[in-house]
UniProtKB/TrEMBL annotation:
Cystine bridges: 69-73
Highest rank taxon of the organism: Bacteria
Family from the record: Belongs to the SCO1/2 family.
UniProt feature coiled coil, ranges: none
Protein name: SCO family protein
Gene Ontology molecular functions: metal ion binding
Organism: Parvularcula mediterranea
Record CDD domains: SCO
Residue positions binding Cu cation: 69, 73, 158
Keywords: Copper, Disulfide bond, Metal-binding
Keyword set includes Cytoplasm: no
Entries under PANTHER family matching the protein: ELECTRON TRANSPORT PROTIN SCO1/SENC FAMILY MEMBER, LINALOOL DEHYDRATASE_ISOMERASE DOMAIN-CONTAINING PROTEIN
Amino acid sequence: MDTMKHLIAGLCAAALLASCADERPIAGEITLNEAFSAEFDLVDMYGEDATDERFEGKPMLIYFGFTSCPDVCPAALGVLTATLEEMGKDASGLQPLFITVDPERDTQARLVQHLSFDERILGLTGDEEAIEAAMKRMRVFAAKVPLEDSAVGYTVDHQSMFFLTDENGRPIRAFNDSIAPDVFAKRLKAFL
C-alpha cells in the first residue's frame, strides 16, 4: 500500500513540475527583476520616433549591438532570424529591436542596409546620451576600444544577450546569444 501511495505522490509531483516547465528558466536564461527597465527614447532606422511606449501591447525582444561588429552581432542576428523563422506566424506577436551601441557610426541609413536581410527586425539609434541612457536602464555594458593601426579606428566591446519584455514593456527575461533557435522559439512562445 505504501508503494502505491509513493507512486501516486511521485506521479502528482511529476505532473506538477511538467505543468510549470515553461515558467522555469533554462540554462542561459535569466529572470529579470524591477532593476531592469526597457524605457528608451530613440529614433528608428526610418527616422520615426521610437520610444518604449510606441511598442506597448506587444512584447519586445531587444538586442544591443553594432553594424561593424565582426563576429558576435552577426552570429546573434543569425540566431534571431532562425528563431523568428522557427516561430512561424507566432513571431508576429513579438517586436524584435536592434539597438546600436555605436551611434557615432550607426546612422539610420546604415541600420537599414545592415538589417535588410529581415524586415521584422527594427533598428534603433539616437545620440550618444540617449543610447547610454537606454543601456543604463537595461544594465547593458558597452565600451569603445581603440584599434591602433586599423582603418576602422575602434571597436565596441559589449554584452551580447537578448532581452524579452512583456506586452507592457517590462523586462522579464534575458537569453544567452548562443541559444539554439528551436529552444529559443519554444521559450519565446511560452511568453506570448
